[in-house]
Amino acid sequence: MKILFASSEAHPFIKTGGLADVSGSLPNALVALKHKVRLVLPAYQAVLKKLSAKEIKKVAEISVRGCGKIYSAQVLQVKVGAVNGVDFPVWLVDVPELFDRPGNPYLAADGTDWWDNGERFAIFSMVVNELAMNRAGLKWQPDVVHANDWQTGLVPALLSLEEDAPKTVFTIHNMAYPGNFPKSLFDSLRLPWQLWSMEGAEFYGSFSMLKAGLIKADWVSTVSLTYAKEICFPEFAYGLEGVLQKRETEGRLTGIINGIDEHVWNPATDNLIVQNYSVKKGRIAGKLANKQALLSELCILRGEKEKKSLERLTNCMDKPLIGLVGRLVEQKGMDLVLEIMPELIQQTNANFVIVGTGDKGFEAQIRALSQKYPHRVWAFIGYSESLAHRVEAGADMFLMPSRFEPCGLNQMYSLAYGTPPIVHHTGGLADSVVNATDENIKAGTATGFVFYDPSRHALKSTILHALHLFGKKRTWQKIQKTGMELSLDWKHSAKKYIELYSEIK
Q1: Beta bridge partners of 181
Q2: The predicted structure's pLDDT at residue 505
Q3: What is 169-219 written as a DSSP string?
Q4: Which CATH architecture has domain 283-484?
Q5: Where does residue 124 rank: exposed (0-12), middle (13-18), buried (19+ CB within 10 A)?
């Protein structure tokens, strides 16, 4: 089967969130199943800087009508093997006026959306449409086009108007980002009039690329079974519950949970941690060595002298270390965490390590806590992929209290690293973590800790339960072992996608 995978980001080319992890890993898993895949991305400045002139070549040029002008889009093909772990052709859509900009694919330097995001990703989608219809002279037409999130929502919509078009799958990674724009953008782009209706891109008078994809794709998927159910309700659907309920009734909405790239996230081979370990060899000693190295690194990062930090670490090694890596925003439950942290510091012997960036108020509170409790709280405000690996390996448990989480990957990394996660029962968190009740522990199925009400009280009581079981070493090691033995890679999920592609009529 030939599959064209369209995304606005993909690891290791460029990453802002979980979409990049999926777009970087799923195509590889499909190739491993003997399918022919092409990944198409915008040629951002940051992507082109990673590649030399010898590693890319122009393979096509496509003219596309934008807002008041004609863009010349060059299609650049990345040499297979030029980027580590990417063993299939990648096409980059190079429109310098739209994508040759510093930093984030979606945000300007001041943190606001690029003013022309609507036009940027509409043009990208138009180019993908031309590639999908084999009108670029590349002599390759896919059987299926797999589009992702609002940035490619126009792809299924445009292909729905074509004759003999490939089948389309549209995957929602997060409904919170709808891609809504003024109707004037739709008019300026001179998009086909057939798409402007309640059964198209029109959304309460505005232009919604997300809605266009949801309605016009042959099949809609999302990144966990629970999230597929949740988005049919108003509190998760952001006004699109009617559309999603209809797709569900049609039998055209499904959830397939993400996997993790075990070449990258594997404690037995991870070169970003100080001591490798596995469920079969060196788990307990490996966790301790990584815990000490993590805390030492964080002490040094905040300016402590090595001797002083070692003295502190001596008193910390036998105490539970709770790790948190992620965006410091309300969606991720950071307000709940910050409400209860002072109480937990005073009432328990737990220590905390927090890595992330986000709301400036939350960042300031975390800094204040680390200054007030330097023996108990370590913080790194910023993003560090390598430090994230060391937190997963060095922490005793991992905190992920998201109010909603379409899939989530950190809880799966935690399971793989023997770091039982503490999660809210929502989306992919509900689908991937088995609560450590007495019954589940006895049955040998418990892998972490789950709370069911997104409140400070429920979160605190669940953390206290986890701390209690941490003191029961045999029980704790049993929970660790059960999580580490799970098969979390992309093989199973990739097979589900192939079944889905094959099912589309």
Answers
A1: 207
A2: 75
A3: EEEES-TT---EE-HHHHHHTT--GGGSSTTTTEETTEEEHHHHHHHHSSE
A4: 3-Layer(aba) Sandwich (3.40)
A5: buried
Nearest to 157, CA basis, from 208, 204, 203, 116: 208
Rg (CA), the chain: 23
**Nearest to residue 148, comparing CAs of 242, 229, 220, 55?**
220
Topology adopted by domain 2-259+491-503:
Rossmann fold (3.40.50)
Amino acid at 369: L
Q: Could you read off the pLDDT of 28-73 as tens digits, one per residue?
A: 999 999 999 999 999 999 999 999 999 999 999 999 999 999 999 9
**2-259+491-503 shares its CATH topology with 283-484:** yes
Q: 421-453 as b/e, with b when 16 or more CB fall inside 10 Å? A: bbbbbbbbbbbbbbbbeeebbeeeebbbbbbee
Length of the chain: 505
pLDDT at 307 over 70: no
Q: What is the average pLDDT value for the chain, to the nearest integer?
A: 95
Q: How far is Cα of residue 141 from the mean position of the Cα atoms in its chain?
A: 28
pLDDT in tens, 217-236: 999 999 999 999 999 999 99
CA–CA separation, 268 and 320 (whole Å): 23
Distance separating alpha carbons of residues 419 and 116, to the nearest angstrom: 42
Backbone angles phi, psi at 195, to 5 degrees: -85, -10
pTM comes to: 0.92
Which sequence spans correspond to the domains of the chain? 2-259+491-503, 283-484
180: tokens are 């809504």
User: What count of other Cβ atoms lies within 10 Å of the Cβ of residue 265?
Assistant: 24
The pLDDT score that the predictor gives to residue 84 is 82
Pairwise pLDDT comparison (273 vs 80), residue with the higher score: 273
- Comparing 244-253, 314-323, 455-464, the range with the smallest average pLDDT is 314-323
